[in-house]
């Protein structure tokens, strides 16, 4: 009868536990305060309320009132928003969010053990881009604010480590003699000496109780408080399991001590030593984790330390030293030899060489003169200069790098979903397993050993370690993104870090990635008809060259700028173009002093010139292209006048990077708007075999899609505005940090050094990180998958093996420690020592159907400066340069009475930041 009662009670308890842990939670409603939806969340062993509901369409302010200390709740992380906010102990921290789109935005503590939800309901509001949300959490903080927050976090961790050390000392002092008096008498020879030579009170359970009480009450207080608070919040975690297990063991031992008659004769052994060892090991594990996690902020601290604390600002005609935070845009700053530049700006006086290796990775200093841009945190080496501050505080390059690193460290990798799904049911499952372990031992265990069920249930509770599961992914992500920043690879989020490991095709845009991106004019040959088609020595006269350069002057294309710089080098005065049209992927059309000037490739001049003239110039073009230069044709008033050669040098490490990728089984493709001969010449120099030439900007995105359709995971590497659509389309977009802001905003990874080898570093670090995360998950799931059944006693029927609660406690602590130690191995990552891990053979080689690529329309209508176009069949996205069908435009804007069309919402957002900058290009 008693067994039936036990089973019925166990079933009822199981149902109650399932309801308690998994029943829907009521959401607390926000309160409107001057147009802002506000909610107060108490942080104490969990979040109260754990679910906050707000209507869409309004900004949100969450006040986190943290009423405790300790590592677990020291941060709140919104992974979907890329926000990580430190929560100082016993203080209220405000977190302001923009109006969010309807949906559920989960948040958790830094160790992924405490969980909550922000629910945005209704149909109002706008979906903000991830980077905009990240700005709400971190980008708007300047270096000084980030420094203060990091220092406060370091101070709290130091205080936590000091507190845990004190408790650990007390635990060791009490647990060691407790272990001796409990375990030594079990050894026959020693036991006889104990009972014969020592007083009876030494071997009595009362001494063990006296030694265990300080450990249970003082050392274990943080564990018990956090554990039971988590249970009260219906979000149990590791502390909950340990607290329930040790309290059960202590209560059983207390009954044995005070009322031994209530327990059968063969089950009167107390387990105080197990309680002491478990709690002491728990404190040791927490101390090791706190110290290990303290090292994850090293990358942020190192970046913050690059910025000088003071700046020499010219005010009132005198140079005054002011804190860097007080520098304002427009201030004139003086920099002396050997000093670091405090903020970004433009040189107004003087010449010097600046070491920019912090940003570009180039060891050679860069000469700066009037008009040159300088970057904060770089080092002035030789002369003294003065410059005008243009970007300060949170807008500086350094602040944005820091913010990007912090955002990436707090984002959640897709692989973490495995851990999240397991963690959501882990603790309730362990409690149920412990309950039914006791029932199973009571029903089928050996007669006369009723304590076995209690001991096995305690072992199940103690050996389970959800903390290791929670640490498995975030700790590796944090360390990896910090290492990436050290080597100039900035991951926007953890998704990019994980996705890069699967990349098997890397598509390079030629200019600025494979080549230096700074072409120069090497030859300018006048066209003299069929007899002069070889171009052997007929120089181009200054008047004609001035007209050509004037047409190019309003284009930002690198080839155009090379022509303009060559004209300036000749000392030519360039007239203004009255009408200017840029044809993406082809060239420019302009009217200069009444002359119609075409400058571009053969496709631009097709139909605008007699076909014979273009055919006569082909030999010159082929000769230039064979030398690796880009041939450019120039026509004035319908006649071909010149063939120009513009060459761009290959980056020194481009060939090494391509070879390294091939050694890793990664295929490479080069895209370029250049002709096929030039493209093949460059590809031959760097060792690439797949080349797509004559590619217009809109076709770059098409190439990416074509490769993806073949089953490949594609990374796109670019640096220009016209690369933005392809960067967005690719599985992983990589932007050179030396390129445009639009490209970097569109990319998942920014390669600050501008070196092709950074692509290899990004791939190697991603592979190493994902391998490390899988090992961590293996440790966490492996320990629990094997340990819990053993703790429950599955080995007892065959081999009579039962796990001691002390061994269970040691295994629990070691599982967390193993994850921490394994994750910290990523600190040793060195790209120069990374070994290729070949992955070839998974998919067929890439094939490109160039016939299927988009071809520009014959007329290729574009918006012409100075003219109003009433019947627009095609328009140019002014941000990325893509041709847009107005009827199917992703977004539009009206600026000065004119409608501007965009190929994707991101380009529209970039336009909104500075409409005047892009309006003329529309």
Q: What does the main sheet amount to?
A: 7 strands, mixed
Percent helix: 40-55%
Number of strands: 37
How large is the count of helical segments?
Answer: 31
What is the SS-derived class? Answer: alpha+beta
The geometry reads as elongated
Low-confidence stretches: 125-140, 531-536, 855-873
Overall radius of gyration: 34 Å
Span of the ends, CA to CA: 86 Å
Average pLDDT number: 79
Beta-strand portion reads 15-25%
Query: For the largest beta sheet, what order do the strands appear in spatially?
Result: 21-33-32-31-22-29-30
Provide a descriptive summary of the structure in words.
The chain is of the alpha+beta class. The chain is built from 31 helices and 37 strands. Strand 31, helix 25 (724-729) and strand 32 (732-736) form a beta-alpha-beta unit. The longest helix has 41 residues, at 143-183. Residues 125-140, 531-536 and 855-873 have low confidence and may be disordered.
